[in-house]
Amino acid sequence: MVSLCDIFTLERSRYYYWLNVKDKPIDLDKARQLDMVKEFHQDPRGSAGARAIAAKLTKKGEKVGRYKAASLMKDAGVESRQPGQHKYKAAPKEHVDIPNHLSREFAVTEPNQVWCGDITFIWAGTCWVYLAVVIDLFSRRVVGWSMSDSPNTELVAKALTMAYLIRGNPKGVMFHSDQGCQYTASKYRQLIWRYQLKQSMSRRGNCWDNAPMERVFRSLKSEWVPEQGYGSLDEAKTDIGEFLMGYYNKRRPHSYNGYLTPVESEARLAG
């Protein structure tokens, strides 16, 4: 055996492994689960972790918890692609004209009670492009978004208008954001007044006051956006639109919703 391994340049450990497993029956249940793990891992472009995969397996009738899912991921040769933790600056003072009405009360009982909005930037070809998103805090569902090559008031206004129309022109919704100049501009505050919304703002420089929006952008950039960015604004719009309104809303289990998707969470309330 030693001579044959040397001749064919094979590691002896592989030969002994083959001797141990060649007569063992194939575990069909585990083989099926491994195939499902690989499929679920690829849906969010190689970023799904053990909790998310466990939730998806459970929906398919497999009795798999977080630690079992982690073991299956290891056997399948896949791992979650996640970034490190973010660090935020402390807030020096609170805005005096638009108070923080939300005050980190992120758990709401019904849709259209509180919306949150924010802006992020993404590389597209030769420049940065800007994405404004609005979510409903009840289910963390994306209800409005807009992209452009300028981070101006029009960008956030389009996202808010989309949310207002998609949600059926609701009245009295609290809209929470940071203190970016886009959200404090008179044009935007007039839009808030026209839609009969109640404006709320985070304390200056305190991203934790709008943590649910940070979570959306973290998921977008770690799970979906290519590492090299996009080739153009149009390419970014198409792909990110699929993430926000397709994958994030309809296919991605959210821990806040008990690992239901945002759409499933709202449907459960309606049903």
Q: How would you characterize the overall build of this protein?
A:
By secondary structure, this protein is of the alpha/beta class. It folds into two domains: 1-76, no CATH class; 114-268, Ribonuclease H-like superfamily/Ribonuclease H (Nucleotidyltransferase, domain 5, 2-Layer Sandwich). 44% of the residues lie in helices and 14% in strands. The chain is built from eleven helices and five strands; from the N terminus they run H-H-H-H-H-E-E-E-H-E-H-H-E-H-H-H. The chain has a five-stranded mixed β-sheet with strand order 3-2-1-4-5, sandwiched between helices. Helix 4 (50-59) packs across helix 5 (66-76). The longest helix has 19 residues, at 233-251. It is globular, with a radius of gyration of 23 Å. The relative contact order is 0.13. The model is unreliable at 83-95 (pLDDT under 50).
Quaternary structure annotation: single chain
* Fraction in helix: 40-55%
Shape: globular
Secondary structure tally, helices: 11
By CATH, the superfamily of the largest domain comes out as Ribonuclease H-like superfamily/Ribonuclease H
Radius of gyration, in angstroms, nearest whole number: 23 Å
Assess the beta-strand content as a share of residues. 5-15%
Indicate the low-confidence ranges by residue numbers: 83-95
Protein name: Transposase OrfAB, subunit B
InterPro entries: HTH-like_dom, Integrase_cat-core, RNaseH-like_sf, RNaseH_sf, Transpos_IS3, Transposase_IS3/IS150/IS904
GO molecular function: nucleic acid binding
Pfam families: HTH_21, rve, rve_2
